[in-house]
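Researcher: Next sequence.
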Amino acid sequence: MERPPDLAAAIDAAAEAFVGVRDSATSRHHVTVPPTQLRVLALISERPETNVNRLAELLDVVPSSASRLCDRLEATGLLRRKPDPRDRREVRLVLTGAAETLLGELKQRRHRAVQAVLDRMPPRAQHELLLALLAFGQAAEAGTPAPQVDPAVRTA
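Model: Next structure:
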């Protein structure tokens, strides 16, 4: 295959297809949790020691916006706030069993959707895709920090 004139645009378009497959696995199953709240649950799942201030940093929003998101998740039974055993002044965000079940089901749906597409690809292309994505991930981790967002835009 010949290198396209605008490689970044071609890769971006291909990545959109990948993201579309993953997103459709969620939207097809009528998930009642909004995408932003799902993102919050995923971030907390990946970082069990998260508090509201750290969540605000991860989302790049002001702490009051992160706190309101947590309020909504707590009201739906997907999140709990609990005191940090090492520092009673700190409050940790903890997923409930319902949240863990929801995230697990979504992950399985996404995996099945991606697998269905992979099954239509030749094995060699599957392997090359994996190697390319691993290399991309390593390069992204070694790259520069994300650009700063205008504080006036920082709401959730």
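Model: Confidence is low (pLDDT under 50) at residues 149-156. The first strand starts at residue 79 and ends at 84.
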